[in-house]
Amino acid sequence: MIGNQFSNLPEEILGVINDCIDKCSRDFDVKAVYLAMNAFSANPQLWWFQPFAYDENGFDMDDPDWLGHYRCDDSLRILTG
Would you state the pLDDT for residue 49? Predict the structure, then answer.
């Protein structure tokens, strides 16, 4: 990836994240958002991310199971470039 970049505009990506927060905020107070990305080694030709919203910051480096306790998600978005 050195010397390469995505062609998605930063404002576009920020808009996706903000739209997810706005959508999820209708049901609960969003405290944290996590962006999951695909495994690049498994599929280096297709890059994407998917936002997940949480009603608490459950971050725990020793227990990644908190990632499965999201309250709201949005569709995955393709990164181009």
Answer: 92
Structure tokens at 41: 């080694």
Q: Compute and round to an integer the Cα radius of gyration of the chain.
A: 14
pLDDT at residue number 14? 94
The residues, any chain, with a CB within 8 Å of residue 69's CB and separated by 6 or more, are: 54, 58
Give the HSE-up count for residue 45: Cα atoms under 13 Å, Cβ half-sphere. Answer: 0
Rounded to whole angstroms, the Cα distance separating 1 from 17 reads: 24
pTM score, whole prediction: 0.79
**Which residues are CB-neighbours of 38 under 8 A, at least 6 positions away?**
46, 47, 48, 49
For 3-15, the pLDDT digits (tens) are: 778 889 999 999 9
Residues in CB range of 60: below 8 A, 6 or more apart: 66
